Here is the input.
Amino acid sequence: ACVQVPTRTGTTPAQSDLTREQLIADASAWVAHAHGRIAVWEIGQETSHRFHAAAGQTPAEYATDLRDFSRAMKAVDPAIRIGATSDWSPERVDALLKKARGDLDLIVVRHFDWGNRASFQAKPVEPWEINMITQRLDALPASERHRIRIAVSECLVQGEADHPQRGDTWHCLAGFATVGWMLSQPRIDFVAQRAAHWDDDPQHTASALDLDNHLAPPGRMLAIWGEHLAGNLVRISSTQPGLELFARVHGGQTTLFLVNKLEQAQALHVVAATPLRGVARSRRFQGRSADDLAPTWGEVPPPTLSADGLRTVLPPFSLSVVDIR
Here is the structure.
């Protein structure tokens, strides 16, 4: 849940006539009303944006507000967790950790990737703001280093300006790789992808659900990760360009997630620390082109397993999910 922070002088029109003290009391009343039903409370929403009522806040002012809101709200329910929100810059993170880290549980990130297909193909997926926040959390004293975590409340691959928010094959693969990278980071508490339905997407080409509320291709990407949340997810290093590779081990099963971001097929040899034996099942998400709005998902022949690992050929712009028991 999200609570409003105060308006500052010189900002856009206020969203509330309440004073700062009244807003804190209002937030505390909401915590009492929702006791035991809402676990995480976000202080403000996109507070650094120019259209927000609190857009005039300095980083230090927002940190002060978070501290005071958190203390009042936790006095009502100590079990809740408090999240800070902003478009994070090093200055904003440093001010927050200096003034309010004892009253903070989550640093909330909204990750909108505005890159294009060429940038997705050319470099590994690594959201810079999360790496920046992680570095600053790692520098905290040992007693606090692991208490504060990162939450991704909105994740979306916007893509190129001529067709933003599309659910074509390359946008889906970019979103899958981005969420996978986030799930592999030990500091990230949870990831939420936007959105089930887009108001400005009448044909639902970028939505997780289609017009009949069935899984659309972007939703399929989330559903695949949803099958594999248990266990330990790691990113696999690769010397080949154009690949995003992940592995998960859980309950005697190894699952490989193999993304080919390029227009051409790629032969892949995954070298395992121990021999890969057992039964392999392989499913594939693939479009006829990068711009295909109706990529397919289904069973395909499994790859070759041997004592030195796994060998397969990844089709262009595809995701292969290989389960090895």
